[in-house]
Amino acid sequence: MTMEVESRREVSGEDDLARQELVVNVGPSHPSTHGVCRVIVHVDGEVVTKAEPVIGYLHRGIEKMCENRTYLQVVPLTDRLDYVGSMYANWAYCRAVERLASIRVPERAEYLRVIVCEMQRIASHMMALGSSAADTGAASMFIYAFDERERIVELFEELCGARLTYNYVRPGGVSFDAPEGWTDRLKDFTNNHRTALSEMDRLFFGNVIARGRMKGIGVLSAEDAVSWGASGPVARGSGVNWDLRKHDSYSVYPRFDFDVPTGSNGDAYDRGRCRLFECYESCRIIEQAAAQMPEGPVKTDGLSRLISPRPGDAYDHIESARGSLGVYVVSEGGPRPYRVKFRSPAFCNLALLPMLAEGHTLSDLVVVLGSLDPVFGEVDR
Length: 381
What we know:
single chain; Cytochrome-c3 Hydrogenase, chain B; three-stranded antiparallel beta sheet; 381 residues
């Protein structure tokens, strides 16, 4: 071996070992890669020359399974897609079914859907911010964020009895009305959450170490964000002012006053801070929705459990915590969908990783991956 190395040095006239490329497997291990993600990383020293995400470790064939379930039985399957944002997948699927079957949703149910999905946005962003902070060594921020997430999970448990996979939003409405006093406890949460957000902003985003680890890392231009189909905080962190709640509004969102936070640098820092400021806006929406919510039923009366839409197809999309979540449903007129397809924002955003990680160090790769906030139940399906 020594003779071969010396021979190569004589031919090339330089030390090949000093610039030898090394291939490293990162993952698939949870939670260090934000889910069961494997990244094949080529490094020159500590600098990433190529990063190749390998997905499929959580593939369960959910889209195919939908073809063998009734429309109502599909709802629990959607919980298993974005499992830290289950309410969103419930709602996106139900909106597509309601569009296909011309189902009218009671007004109170629409308000409850908005409230629980904005709560889910906060819970998801707390998961994203806490785990991304831990990637930089900020364990305190992880604890702060998960404490806030726990408060939302407790409210969800009061509402529907579940803490992770809720099966709450159903075609034609929601499964349960809010219990007595629940909206008062929700208002207490939003008041306290604003204070917690300010503390987290100072603790983490105001910290010189976090700024050094995140600023200028994984810079994504607005043009590339649009070209690659990025959405959510990943695109808005690059200055792309696009939010389906505002720009392709649905449900009762037009009745609420809220802003769309955007960044300017398109780096990991801006993407994380966008998530933080979106939590402020979610608090505003929740409070307005709770104040405006009328009395009335939360389910469509007389809706059969065996929903059989007319033959045809329908597509609907909503703004999830990760971006534009779309659902395409095809009906042949029977009680089961012929085809169901999910448009995953996490999948589209993850495709940016090879471009964003190149030229950074291996430790920066983890920061870039966390800033994309992928959930692999939704990526792999």
